[in-house]
Design brief:
It is found in: Cytoplasm. Its main location: cytoplasm. With about 350 residues, the protein is an alpha/beta fold. It has ten helices and 15 strands. α7 links the parallel β9 and β10. Bound molecules: 6-O-phosphono-beta-D-fructofuranose. 6-O-phosphono-beta-D-fructofuranose (F6P) binds next to loops.
Amino acid sequence: IKRIGVLTGGGDAPGLNAVIRAVVKTAIREYGLSVVGFLNGFGGLIKNQARELSEKDVVGILPRGGTILGTTNRDNPFHYPVIKGGKKEFVDVSDRIFENVSIHGVDALVIIGGDGSLAIAKELYAKGLPVVGVPKTIDNDLLATDQTFGFDTALTTATEALDKLHTTAESHHRVMVLEVMGRYAGWIALAAGVAGGADVILIPEIPYDIKKVIDQINQREMQGKKFSIVVVAEGARPVGGEMVVHKRVEDSFDPIRLGGIGNVVSQQVEEATGKETRVTVLGHLQRGGSPSAYDRILATRYGTGAVRLLMEKRFGEMVCLQGATISSVPLEEAAGKIRQVPLNSDLLLSARQLGICLGD
Ligand code: F6P
């Protein structure tokens, strides 16, 4: 292997640049390789948008959010939209990826992405492209790794938000509802709720009963605790209800939220308790900004680990964290598979034992 490529797919997550930097530095310094950055995710690779990456290009990017590789997006080369006869159709354009990789003389590719991008990486590998994956998402919902980079920063942002909501909740004797991201998993809500001292945490893994939430708030009131903090994962849903997190439209996410579960919970709580209730939807603040120290380190370990994997020709694998150690697993163990919070997780147990209401 003489020359490698790197690309970032899917949504952004704090730490993308830290991975890119680690890949570039390790490839050039340790192995004497050259590196091409494919721009704008898989869409850019399909359109042959690329730039050479030298050590100079990665100076100062470690603390920067976003990605230096243009934009990230959710384009899928196996299901790519084209307009035919005025109508949108989806076609397989993955051959273009092979052509463009070959035009740039790239021997192997590092693909940084979440479940969707890793599923594409797996398909490209099955078709003959030498790839390795790096797990990324603030949601922390990837199977086969104990943690994704980006999660710790999102968690820190959500915890800081809860600290701020606490003081204003206390000042007005209000109920504050914070809706956090996480898609189909409750990792951010659970961890931030525990770190931020929430009274109620609602996660997709445990369908909630709104009566339990109301009871918790009323009980606190009777104990003289005049305010309450509720954390709601965007994917939380009532018993027998549906998730309103995001509606998949064709192959992309529809950013229009169908009501927002935080609003629903907030209105129900205000009506039932008579307490003034306010909702905050934290949204994309969780994806932006500088990565935490933990994420910078994890992303760096993933980046260096990915280049080691390539050099060992362990294509079709993904770097992962197992306990305290960087390891690797076949892409098929991670690609397209979601990891929710296990119901027997000790953090859930701790939350219960602290008296936090989980809605069940
Ligand atoms: O997967 C990361 C994530 O931020 C989710 O938490 C959230 O549901 C989704 O992406 C939002 O997607 P978009 O940025 O396309 O609105």
